[in-house]
Amino acid sequence: MISAGRFCMFLLLLIAAVMVAPHTAKAQSISCSATMTNVTFGNVNPLSSQTDANATLNYTCSNSANTTRFATVCFSIGDGAQGGGNSNPRRMQDGAADPLFFQLFQNAAHTTVWGSSFFGVNTPVEVDVTVARRGSTSGSATMYGRVVNGQTTAVPGAYQDSFAGSHTAITINESATTPPGSCSTSILTQFPFNVTATVTSQCSVSASTLDFGTVGLLLANTDNTSTLTVQCASGVAYQVGLDNGQHATGNTRRLQGPGGLISYELYRNTTRTQRWGTTLNTDTVTGTGNGSNQGLTVFGRVPNQTTPSAGTYNDTITVTVTY
Q1: pLDDT under 50: residue ranges of the chain
Q2: Which of 80, 113, 255, 292 is the most buried (most CB within 10 A)?
Q3: Domains of the chain from N-terminus onward
Q4: From the CB of residue 301, how many other CB atoms can be counted at a distance below 10 Å?
């Protein structure tokens, strides 16, 4: 009995010693730092066109060990301070919190998003490095930014998204043999940068032909209409003016043809009492852009007058949008 009791005590002490024995982990030898230049889009017109701009990541990795070390270094980018959780596309904001959408890519074809291991699109940039004993290595990567088009709600003004602090991350997955080819989950440092753009006040206009048709004798008014289509950035106030054409005399517009000239007029209202001209705040048509196409009706009239010889009569009007 005594012998068995001593044997049991010995086993308990041995187990206890195994449980409290310290575990020695090898410290990481490779450390990396990086900087990213700002993405500056400048003036953009997201209503009708996309705008591209690039930035450059520069990194340096050092090895404190006395042997060559290998690592997969991952550079993650999140949504930014103004991103509001948007990752595809990302979002800038102006001072009134209006949105402007953009994206950051890894490739010149703008098909692979530069994402993050910790948020949104899980596609960080991965770089495999081999660093000699007590040595260092450096490299760079291009980031391709794009403001997407078709943004009808983009209000003119200055926009930004700040990628400071936790919105970027560098992780290092180290090995003694070959780069692991996967990202670590331990964030070691950041590489802050800003994305900026200025939405400019933009308008475009198109017009359909005003065709009075085939007319016999000009013994009464001949009326018809056409449409102007105006597209201006959201919130932009505009005025549309029509000049007097190519054959006017004074403020009388005229069509020209084989038999001479036919007088006609263009109006802003259906009763044809308000002439459409070019004097701002007087005889132009005003509006406020909403980012979408806005149609304006031109009311035309050929009044009764002496009928010239048969033929085709025409004129060209210049449309001006002031904003």
Answers
A1: 1-25
A2: 80
A3: 27-199 (2.60.40), 203-322 (2.60.40.1090)
A4: 16
